[in-house]
Amino acid sequence: MTGAGVTALGVGAAAVLGVLVGALVARLAARFPWPPRRSRRAGGDTAAADGESRPGPRDRGGAGRAGSVAVLTGVLFALTAWRIGLSWELPAFLFLAGAAVLLTVVDVQHRVLPNRVVLPSIAVGAVLLTVAAAGTGEWSALLRAGVAAGVLFVVFLFLALISPRSLGMGDVKLAALLGLYLGWVGWGAVVLGAAAGFIVQALLALALLAGRRIGLRAELPFGPAMLIGAAVAIGWPDLLLR
Q1: CA dist 111 to 53, 91, 164, 171, 240, Å?
Q2: Residues linked to residue 44 through DSSP beta bridges, in sequence order
Q3: Is the bond preceding residue 33 a cis peptide, omega within 30 degrees?
Q4: How far apart are CA 27 and CA 34, in angstroms?
Q5: Could you tell me the pTM of the whole model?
Q6: 157 burial class (0-12, 13-18, 19+ CB within 10 angstroms)?
Q7: Rounded to the nearest 5°, which phi and psi values hold at 118?
Q8: Residues 6+ apart with CB under 8 A from 48
Q9: Rounded Cα distance, 125 and 123, in Å
Q10: Digits of tens for pLDDT over the chain (242 positions)?
Q11: Distance CA 22, CA 18 (A)
């Protein structure tokens, strides 16, 4: 990614946009589980299933939590704009940042990665990266992104089949979304991002165990670790072996 440098004003504008997106994300997360979608079928309405497991009770977090989510999203948007710069790719990666915050909050609170977020995010990400490829002529990067999404989907599906207690189908679909963006950056980012997710999960588990926040048999959501690992691969270019 070779976007032009972004000014302090541009970073500030991205931060403000992030705060607004974060406020919306906090409201959406607080209302989860969302009312089921209904599709018109013969004889009446039928609810469409969403997610990979039954979510817990609706979150009742207060204004403090919503404010923290908004600030976190603003910081993430600012860092994304600073890292990528003014480029055709920027809208795609800002969208990923917003989706990542929503998925992280929901997965931490409810242990589920909703289909109604992951699947549309894959489609929107593909469209935005296609626009970026049209603007930059980087069609090879778009092809690599599509292949990487498929590769990570297959790899994580295999891992989920052999260890269903460690990975769910939500994680498998999230791998496809992250593969799309990591593939755009490069194959080094794909390898690093996928591996970093497992390392982050292990470090989080060790920290929580050391702090006696969880027991040895506790199960942690894997989505946040996957997202952090992808952020490391995208945001730390010196680690990429392209």
Answers
A1: 8, 28, 14, 11, 31
A2: 41
A3: yes
A4: 11
A5: 0.85
A6: middle
A7: -65, -50
A8: 36, 37, 38, 39
A9: 5
A10: 555 567 888 899 999 999 999 999 999 999 988 887 665 444 433 334 444 444 444 445 456 788 899 999 999 999 999 999 889 999 999 999 999 999 999 999 999 999 999 999 999 999 999 999 999 999 999 999 999 999 999 999 999 999 888 899 999 999 999 999 999 999 999 999 999 999 999 999 898 888 777 766 677 899 999 999 999 999 876 554 44
A11: 6
Q: What is the DSSP string of the chain?
A: --PBP--HHHHHHHHHHHHHHHHHHHHHHHTPSPPPPEEEETTEEEEPP-SSS---SPP---HHHHHHHHHHHHHHHHHHHHHH-BSTTHHHHHHHHHHHHHHHHHHHHHS---HHHHHHHHHHHHHHHHHHHHHH--HHHHHHHHHHHHHHHHHHHHHHHH-TTT--HHHHHHHHHHHHHHHHH-HHHHHHHHHHHHHHHHHHHHHHHHTTSS-TT----SHHHHHHHHHHHHH-GGG---
Q: How far apart are CA 234 and CA 197, in angstroms?
A: 13
Tokens of 213: 């926040």
Burial of residue 140 (CB within 10 Å: 0-12, 13-18, 19+) is exposed
**Which residue type, as a one-letter code, is found at position 89?**
E
Cα 156 to Cα 29: distance, rounded to the nearest angstrom: 26
CA distance linking residue 88 with residue 183, whole number of Å: 16
Structure tokens at 191: 């390898």
